[in-house]
Amino acid sequence: MKQSQTSEMSHSQLRSKRHRTSIRASSGSRNPSKDSEKDEDSDEELVAPATPKTSDSVSSDDDDDNDDDDDDDDGDNDNDDDDDDDHRKGEIPDVIFNHPLVNDLLDRFMRAKLQNDNTINNINNDKNTGKKGTLKPAPIHAVDLKFDELRQLCDLAMNSFAKQKSLLRIGIEMLPITICADTHGQFRDVRCILSTCGNPSSRTYLFLGDYVDRGSQGIETVTMLMCFKIKYPTRVYMLRGNHEDANTTLIYGFYDECINRFPNDEGELLWHIFMMVFNMMPLSAIVGDRVLCMHGGISPHLNDITMIENIPRPSIVPPYGLMCDILWSDPDDRYPGWALSARGISFTFSSKVIKEFCETNNIDLIVRGHQLTADMFKGGYKYFAGGRLVTIFSAPNYLNMKNDSCVLHISRKFKCHFTIFRPIFPGANGAQNGKDTETQAAPIEGY
Fold first, then answer.
1. Mean of the pLDDT values across residues 83-92?
2. Has residue 65 got a pLDDT over 50?
3. Does some domain include residue 48?
4. Which of 168, 347, 355, 414 would be a feasible disulfide site paired with 285, CB 3.0-4.6 Å?
5. Residue 447 lies in a domain
6. Is residue 301 annotated as a catalytic residue, yes or no?
7. Where in the sequence is the domain holding 172, given as residue range(s)?
8. Based on the structure, what is the number of domains in the chain?
9. Looking at the predicted structure, is the pLDDT value of residue 346 above 60?
10. Which whole-number Å values give the CA distances from 206 to 12, 52, 65, 297, in the listed order?
11. CATH number (domain holding residue 108)
12. Which of 19, 243, 295, 409 is an active site residue?
């Protein structure tokens, strides 16, 4: 009987689990959904945290019949990781931009201690104003940030984004890559992802947007990722989500976060500066010419993926059209073809549309975020269209929903596997977001 080790992560009270799948972006198999629906039958490896609090072993009877296959699968994946490292050595000229402000901010971000701070974290739902979507006070990793520092950092970020096209082309030489979706101001959990999956100094990351709103530390989340993006421009890539938008942030919390953190006129000015940065962000990415990534989905206006390159920036999010759909559309088989979205903006698209689009554009897999449906609560991901599209969500316990989250890893051989993060709620009654945490996150070394 195969056993796997479980560990509670003291730095964020998340249990991370890696799902290795037999899915290849290049394979002929297009229906991995059966594996994703039955977690017990998939090959799972728990990722040991840097500073485990407790450790115990668990076993599953469902693994008995698959021990040999699982062991072979593990060996294959381990070899893939070694092959990736071998290919990376001496082949990729890493670009590192050392800026005093960026280095100083990264040091503060990664070494911030856990504490209660209601000034930062007390942005609640307001029934009177209709504003909604943020969490109640909970322990956070408070970081001392100055207005002038953030303004200077935003200038650096805009210059960095301006050097990129609306469609990023990430070559195979940059694999393996870790793809993260919505994080929504959950700064602690973003730190957990980086600590678990590897330092951006040595691993490629692609973030699919929605860094702000609803969570309580959107400023820390987006600025930390911008710091990594500025310092490692060939390692860290950031796309725009539908929440990187003025209209959305006015409603769902980021505007309030800015003006509460920086009183007088500084908060509103800082919010405007962030909107300028968001308007410059790339919209989509193609990995190895075979994996298309964006926040929302495809569009009825998108016949060829090269059309994305022609979307001008800086640009506000329009109410309709190609750019709007890339940020807002969703897959949905309840309606054939294209249909108006219940969100009140953009469209939904069926499996048939996805398959036709992938065949026309020679795409093997579409990776997106933007959604957390009930069938994603366990695992944090969902396949669609027979494996041609996968939705991932990277914010665990989102709005106290007690959901899992995940990130997707793609190896140089285009093998895909997930690292799953499961929130832990000790005690009979559980705990609200973050309130069960007792220790601060371990800093990431070598950033």
1. 49
2. no
3. no
4. 168
5. no
6. no
7. 100-423
8. 1
9. yes
10. 22, 27, 36, 16
11. 3.60.21.10
12. 243
